[in-house]
Design goal:
Layout lengths: L10 H12 L16 E5 L2 E5 L16 E5 L4 H12 L3 E8 L2 H19 L6 E6 L1 H10 L5 H20 L4 E2 L12 H8 L6 E2 L7 H11 L2 H4 L19 H8 L5 H8 L2 E4 L30 H6 L20 E2 L9 H5 L34 E2 L5
Parallel strand pairs: 3-4, 3-6, 4-5, 6-7
Antiparallel strand pairs: 1-2, 5-8, 9-10
Helix pairs in contact: 2-3, 2-7, 4-5, 5-6, 6-9
């Protein structure tokens, strides 16, 4: 490119002159398969030389395609879907339907913070956190279990529409991938989207999981996303995989949707750019001693439990009688109510309760009587 006011020259002229200057440093000239290619870019009175071209990510300026709302869960899929949308020029805010409490919220905030700080230059993404606990409770009470997954997604879309009206978003963005889970069959996606007035963009629709995780590694969210638990899998077994829109409408009609409206109205809003590192750490409550009568529930993995647990390994010894609920008297000077202990009790054959081995349940390990030091003397069945 000739500088203004100077005689023009051609790229060929630079090629010849530079080749002649480099020739003494080469064994021979090979224009077909060169060992080194030198690139030159001339701008005004400067020439830039380089030997490596690093491929960029491409895309469009962020915000050039308008605003959208990402339904984020913190996992690999929704984070990558958000990034792909931003890459095509869409500015995004985030909606998080919280099913797991504050610790879960902080984990998802960390993922969204990476996307905001590393990829949302020129914008200030907002993060809307909606407590979906009451909404799920209402759904569980009235909706058939087989429809829980698709109805939950429909409710999340509705929450998204409500937030989108506030942010002037033109579309919803999800991390759904065709056939990846039961709620993401083509028929289920049709039934879920039927109740939504906004377009739903699914950048990952045809991606497989390995491709998604590889992209997550490239954009810097994989390490955080792999720590985020999955809370959306509610249906115990045999979820519907080919729901009809009218069937989902009928299930939705059973609900008091004011619960959803209240949840959205009470949403917490975070400015992701303004969040500090200390604000992303979940606050913990520390105590120096266990209060009398307290129940200690150990949520460690079995391997970590074997390494250390409070206060020491506890042996549950069957007592002389079996209660109607099938719990056993623990005879030990001190005892921790811990998962490994409760999950592997020794069941005597003389149990006179409702069954020889009481049915396992998801109930926490609760005491049914005092104990000399740690206030627990009985351990019901427990299923991790």
């Amino acid at each position: 490119r000739p500088a203004a006011g100077r005689p023009s020259y051609r790229s060929r002229d630079i090629e010849v002159e530079l080749g002649a200057a480099l020739r003494p440093f080469a064994e021979r000239v090979d224009l077909t398969n060169p060992e080194v290619t030198v690139y030159v870019e001339v701008r005004e009175d400067r020439a830039y030389f380089y030997t490596t071209i690093i491929k960029g990510l491409g895309g469009l300026p962020i915000g050039s395609q308008g605003q959208a709302l990402v339904l984020i869960s913190g996992g690999f899929d929704s984070a990558v879907a958000a990034w792909l949308a931003m890459r095509r020029g869409v500015a995004v805010d985030y909606l998080f339907c919280n099913l797991g409490g504050k610790a879960y919220e902080r984990a998802v905030l960390q993922v969204a913070k990476v996307l905001a700080d590393a990829w949302s230059f020129g914008t200030r993404p907002r993060f809307y956190s909606v407590d979906f606990g009451p909404v799920v409770d209402e759904m569980r009470r009235h909706v058939r279990p087989a429809y829980w997954q698709v109805v939950l997604k429909r409710l999340m879309y509705r929450a998204g529409e409500a937030v989108a009206r506030q942010t002037e978003a033109l579309a919803l963005i999800t991390g759904e991938s065709l056939g990846q889970v039961s709620s993401q069959t083509l028929k289920n996606l049709q039934a879920i989207e039927a109740g939504t007035s906004l377009p739903v963009l699914r950048p990952l629709l045809t991606y497989d999981k390995e491709e998604i995780i590889n992209l997550a590694r490239q954009i810097g969210t994989a390490t955080l996303s792999e720590r985020v638990r999955e809370y959306c899998a509610l249906t115990p077994d045999r979820p519907v995989t080919a729901a009809r829109p009218e069937a989902v409408d009928a299930e939705l009609a059973k609900l008091d949707l004011s619960v959803l409206e209240q949840a959205v109205a009470s949403a917490e809003v975070y400015d992701l750019r303004a969040l500090s590192a200390s604000e992303l750490v979940t606050p913990y409550l520390f105590i120096e001693e266990i209060p009398e009568g307290a129940v200690v529930i150990d949520c460690q993995s079995e391997a970590l439990y074997e390494h250390w647990h409070y206060p020491a390994p506890c042996t549950w010894i069957p007592g002389s009688s079996c209660s109607s609920s099938g719990t056993w008297t623990a005879i030990a000077p001190t005892c921790s109510i811990a998962r490994a202990d409760c999950n592997r009790p020794t069941w005597p054959r003389s149990c006179s309760g409702p069954a020889t081995k009481p049915t396992r349940s998801r109930a926490a390990c609760r005491p049914s009587g005092p104990m000399p030091e740690h206030g627990a003397s009985k351990c019901p069945s427990f299923n991790g």
